[in-house]
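#struct-help
A.M.: can someone run this one for me? Single chain, 338 residues.
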Amino acid sequence: MPKKTFASFSFNMKSLLVGATVVAASLALIMPAAAADDYPERPINMVVGFGTGGSADRLARIMSGYIAEEIGVPVQVTNRPGAGTQVASNYVLNMPDDGYTTYASTFAPYLANSVLTGGANFSVDDFSYINFQWFDLDLIAANKDSGYEDLPSLLEAIREERGQVRGAVVQGSAGHLMIRLLLEEAGIPQENLNLVTYNSGGEARSAVAGGQVDFVSISAQGSEGIREFLTPLAIVSDERIDQWDAPPINEALASMDLEVPVLQGSMRGFAVTSEVELQHPERFEALASAIQSALARKDVQEHLERNEMGGVWIGPERANELMRENYAVFEKYAHLLN
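D.P.: on it. Structure tokens below:
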């Protein structure tokens, strides 16, 4: 089966090229960062929906400096983890809608799951998404000393050894939902798995690398740093990829005569409240211009590449479309996370 890379996956996602091909045209339509009304006049607070060390946090910390250079004031990063990003979402929504608070997160699937399963008192439409720049696949991998060499052996152990197998996921993530789906499709009671949920990818990865859990289901591209501690079991994709020696999820399940939906992985980027765009469109455009200009820089792209992070510009229109599409997919399966 042919392989593909994370970069090609990002650009081959359904309809993603529609947004990616308008970069040059959209640049002319976005106002300069030093826009009308002298915005910004003070530092901007970038709120991260996860703890330190995870993919969203690392992306925010790299991009914040470059965005600051483009927009002309410092961009300060603040972590507000908890409840599958609901803590950060509520914090951002309760701040003044003046463009001085931005939101950096893995918006899909966490924001949708906050609404669908977390009892959130907001909707995905309460935010305006400036850009999703980093798309990712999910990886299911075992601790190298766990003894699990393939996905069927892991699932059979969960079936036979009730409560003995421990797994790590980030609460409300696509990886979390995939594990629930696997158990349901295999006819394994959900309570057979001792599933530990974390508020950040960094915590979940540390747990599997240190042997506190037997396996993890998490974004693949942020997991290179613990590669030496892992045995990859499956990649949640229709095709193999170069970065991980693991079969696509349904190929891994073939011997069990099982097939599961291939869930879209993570979408990371930046947003503000929808009221910022409504009340201060020029400030929204200034933020978008700063992010787009940063991503157009060769040094920024090289820095992101060194850290194996995405640097795509799709723009606000396409980002908002993708968020609504993602919400519809997770709405279909949200009952598994209740």
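A.M.: thanks! The radius of gyration is 20 Å.
D.P.: also worth noting: The chain has 14 helices and twelve strands.
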